[in-house]
Write a structure and sequence with these properties.
The protein is of the alpha+beta class. Helices cover 29% and strands 21% of the residues. The strands form 6 sheets. Strands 2, 4, 8, 17, 19, 20, 22 and 23 form an 8-stranded mixed sheet that branches. β5 and β6 form a beta hairpin. The protein starts with a helix and ends with a helix. This is Protein transport protein SEC23.
């Protein structure tokens, strides 16, 4: 089976492409039954339909190619609940030779594009996205200038009708009135004070009726802070040019007073008021009913884009004391329970995340600092709203600028329509205020999802497991306030039929994904993907089972489960669970006898799986030694949103070798791949590294690449750089780039990811590298695995 081709057609990959026919058979598989789904993946063959979908009147599932059609009676039977439904009058002309796109067999994924809802037009809230920029003023002036330049540059990528708001944080909070063009006008609030929603409305004069705010020449109420980019671009550029570093943050020996929690709280209150919310309680939300009281009267959602250069040191959400004598918490402090502010601040930011998710806005965080900024405590604030997270060293770096501008990538650019001379409407790739619903046939249950989203109320006839859940479970609907083509979600399922009543072979199990989101032009986009797979009797046909296994998808599903378990269990316990499951997989699917490990042979359909698990154990996700809590949060956040190939890349990088004796070729991720006369290109997703062998380094040092008679050598040196540029050009977040020589200090980034096949006692003059590590090599790992599997049997 070509799993990649199937992913290109539907944006979905399953761990098992034939479903087990009973609960007992599923438990024997060890590896979970699940899939990885990208609801906004670009599918060139996906039809775009300009009319609303047809829903089953019983279960709500949407018309799809698996439905049974009665062409004479003009009815269709739902394959999920077997309810018979009448076609609307517009479908009366269909026949076997003339089918609508949603019934054609090859179109298991279709999109419905609908005009903006009338209710929002009546309420006069424009169907445009809203962007609130929250700037930290406690960073060096040159970095602040780079941050401001990136914001101004982003205006060229925004739709002209989109609204923006500008807020700065430091010792105080400053909210800019973008309707007052005579001179910069702003409201200043104390960063250490707590403000209620009613108090903010009074201080900022937001009590104006929502229906009258935009009447007249001068906007009033909340709309003086939110203005279309086409009207205020010049004013905002002038304001940004005048913004300077916070003058109150220059005292030596103490951290600057940075009111991050209060600033985020204020930003969410401004967004809530813009979307017509008149009452908002920012206290701790204990029940789902409290969230349901937060209702906006329209709008398509937006983003709060936060720029931080350090942790919160004052007020709500405080991460660390101002004195440098008190360092910011580490993994060791979290393990001992001695992190002073972590529990309280996590609860505060988690509560803000629930409110922001309900309003329909995402929180993006760009942290640029050599120290931690507190994203460990803010992790659910970002993930629950579907926001983006980036941590790097400086704002004046390519990593920040390219990653930030990627947020505003538009469809016109992705389709290369910018070369056309006529002016076209700018539509962002990002979808806003997304809602994803999953429905299954009666034989399957939904366990949950692991990804950057939040639980939403379930539908009436959802088939979910109420007793056991994985990740975010006990529902069949999830909310993610921003969706882009890269975002991916891991769904886990279970079979509910008992072995005494197994599902008959050749019966098809169906899972339907329905994703509703808003385009930046206000139109509603509904993507429907219906995935069908046969149930199989694995006891009588083991070969069919093995061929249906997608080991890459399985490795990613297991890796997400492992990272999810680290939130409630110690890393050692998670590693033991991972080892135990790998042993069980090998016992079930490997061939061996009593003669010992020499007889051990794993099916080719499973041959890479132990290798994936070996590298997962050594990765940043489970081996946190040397990483800060913020870095661990950043890595896991990225794993939760990337597709199969990128996720695999995170724990098992790709290594290419460039040699003058032949074309570039992939090589083993092993110490033996380092040669004195080759160049290695390492791609770890977060890092792209070019490594020159000792001989290549000497030739460069002697200047051969600059001599006319050695043009070929100069061309050879450019090949890995060109390949690296191709890799980095469209990746988010933009990876770090390193170019180093054999034996240099930066070469440690390469050595740390290679299999230590040559130990310190086996020094090789060929590669002149010694592996100073406590990790065992892959060969030792596999030998021990084989020994345990054979002995246990």
């Amino acid at each position: 089976m070509n799993f990649i081709q199937k992913e290109d057609l539907n944006g979905i990959r399953w761990s098992w492409n034939i479903f087990p026919n009973s609960t007992q058979e599923e438990s024997r598989l060890v590896i979970p039954l699940g899939c990885l789904y990208s609801p906004k993946k670009e599918i060139p063959t996906c039809p775009e339909l300009p009319y609303p979908p047809i829903n089953c009147r019983s279960c709500g599932c949407i018309l799809n190619p698996y439905c049974s059609i009665d062409f004479n009676g003009k009815t269709w039977s739902c394959p999920f609940c077997y309810q018979r439904n009448q076609f609307p009058q517009s479908y009366y002309g269909i026949s076997e030779q003339s089918l609508p796109a949603e019934l054609i067999e090859k179109f298991t994924t279709v999109e419905y594009l609908l005009p903006p809802p009338q209710q929002q037009q009546q309420n006069r809230i424009p169907n445009v996205p809203v962007f609130l920029f929250l700037l930290d003023l406690h960073c060096p002036q040159e970095e602040l200038d780079a941050m401001k330049d990136a914001i101004v540059e982003s205006f060229a990528f925004l739709p002209p009708q989109s609204k923006i708001c500008l807020v700065t944080l430091g010792t105080a909070l400053q909210i800019y009135d973008l309707s007052f063009t005579s001179c910069p006008k702003s409201f200043i609030l104390r960063g250490t004070r707590e403000y209620t929603f009613d108090k903010i409305q009074d201080l900022l004069q937001l009590r104006t009726n929502i229906l009258d705010q935009q009447k007249g020449d001068t906007p009033t109420g909340i709309h003086k802070f939110f203005r279309p980019i086409s009207e205020c671009e010049f004013l905002v550029s002038e304001i940004l040019e005048d913004i300077k570093k916070d003058p109150w943050g220059n005292k030596k020996g103490i951290r600057p007073q940075r009111c991050v929690g209060t600033g985020l709280q204020l930003a969410i209150m401004l967004m809530a008021r813009y979307f017509g919310i008149l009452k908002l309680n920012l206290g701790k939300i204990e029940k789902e009913e409290d969230l349901l009281k937060i209702k906006s009267i329209g709008g398509i959602g937006g983003r709060i884009i936060t720029f931080l250069s350090g942790p919160c040191t004052k007020g709500k959400g405080q991460i660390v004391d101002r004195e440098f004598d008190n360092p910011i918490r580490s993994h060791h402090d979290l393990l001992k329970g001695s992190a002073k502010y972590t529990k309280e601040s996590f609860s505060f930011y988690d509560n803000l995340g629930k409110i922001a998710n309900q309003i329909g806005i995402s929180i993006d965080l760009f942290g640029c600092s050599f120290d931690q900024i507190g994203c460990y405590e803010m992790r659910t604030l970002i993930s629950k709203t579907g926001g983006e997270l980036l941590i790097t060293d400086k704002f004046n770096s390519d990593i920040f600028k390219n990653s930030f501008l990627h947020l505003f990538k538009n469809k016109k650019q992705s389709q290369q329509q910018q070369q056309q001379e006529q002016e076209e409407e700018i539509v962002l790739e990002t979808g806003f205020n997304g809602l994803l619903e999953v429905n299954t046939t009666a034989e399957l249950q939904i366990l949950g999802v692991v990804g950057n989203c939040e639980k939403f109320s379930k539908t009436g006839k959802a088939k979910i497991n109420e007793k056991f859940s994985v990740g975010i479970g006990k529902t069949n609907r999830w909310k993610m306030n921003t969706l882009d083509p890269q975002k991916n979600y891991a769904f886990y399922f279970s079979v509910i039929n008992d072995q005494k009543n197994p599902i008959q072979p050749k019966k098809i199990g169906l899972v339907q994904f329905k994703t509703i989101s808003y385009d930046s032009n206000g139109k509603i986009r509904i993507r429907v993907t219906t995935s069908g797979h046969l149930f199989g009797d694995f006891a009588s046909n083991a070969g069919m089972l093995k061929q249906s296994f997608d080991q890459e998808t399985a490795a990613v599903l297991v890796s997400r489960l492992a990272v999810e378990r680290t939130k409630t269990e110690k890393t050692g316990s998670v590693l033991r669970w991972l080892d135990k499951s790998l042993i069980q997989v090998c016992k079930k699917f490997a061939n061996f006898d009593k003669t010992g490990i020499s007889s051990f042979q794993l099916s080719p359909y499973f041959s890479y799986y132990p290798q994936f698990m070996y590298h997962l154990r050594r990765s940043h996700f489970l081996n946190i030694f040397g990483d800060s809590p913020d870095e661990t949060t950043y890595f896991s956040h990225s794993l939760y949103k990337e597709n199969v190939s990128n996720s695999i890349l995170m724990f098992q990088p790709i290594l290419q070798s460039f040699s003058m004796n032949g074309p570039p070729s992939p090589v083993l991720l092993d110490m033996g791949s380092i040669k004195k006369d080759n160049i290695l290109l390492l791609d770890t997703f977060f890092l792209v590294l070019i490594h020159h062998g000792k001989q290549i380094k000497n030739w460069i040092k002697q200047g051969y690449h600059e001599m006319e008679e050695y043009k070929d050598f100069a061309t050879f040196l450019e090949l890995p750089k060109q390949e690296a540029q191709v890799i980095m050009s469209d990746r988010f977040p933009y990876p770090r780039f390193i170019e180093c020589d054999q034996g240099s200090s930066p070469a440690r980034f390469l050595l740390s990811r290679l299999n230590p096949s040559s130990s310190n006692n086996q020094y090789s003059e060929e590669n002149q590298n010694s592996s100073l590590t406590d990790d065992v090599s892959f060969q030792v790992f596999m030998n021990h695995l084989k020994k345990v599997v054979c002995n246990q049997n």
